[in-house]
Amino acid sequence: MKGFLYLCALGLVMLFATWAYQVNYRTKAEMDYVSELQRDIAAERQSLSVLRAEWAYLNRPERLRALVEMNFTELRLMPLHADHFAEIQDVAMPLPPMSGDIGALISGMMDTAGHADAEEDEP
Which are the contacts of 68, defined by CB distance < 8 A and separation ≥ 6? Predict the structure, then answer.
């Protein structure tokens, strides 16, 4: 009986040793994979910083101004000034579509108000 228990214990020790060995090597493989991914991420971040630097270099105002002057005949680009922009009050905003009787009532009121304003403007 003791021999059988020793044999079972030896079998369990070998089974657990095999399992621990496999887990150890799988863990090492996954750690290598994570290290590789981290290297790839670092390389991509480096590449991204280089691209950002190139973008900043290409978008220098003096360079863009020179390109506009060089290609003026083809592109007809003009420099922007503050007087090229309008105030928000000057922009006509469309009314949202309204449904039902209340929508018709509001539209009718607005049309009536618009006609009244037009009559006041005429001498």
Answer: 75, 77, 79
Among 81, 83, 113, smallest CA distance to 95 is for 113
Q: How far is CA 61 from each of CA 6, 58, 75, 78, 81, rounded to the nearest angstrom?
A: 84, 9, 17, 14, 14
pTM of the model: 0.48
Tokens of 113: 């108000």
Which residues in 7-42 are b (16+ Cβ under 10 Å) and which e? eeeeeeeeeeeeeeeeeeeeeeeeeeeeeeeeeeee
pLDDT tens digits, 37-70: 999 999 999 999 999 999 999 999 999 888 888 8
**Looking only at Cα atoms, what is the longest distance across the chain?**
123
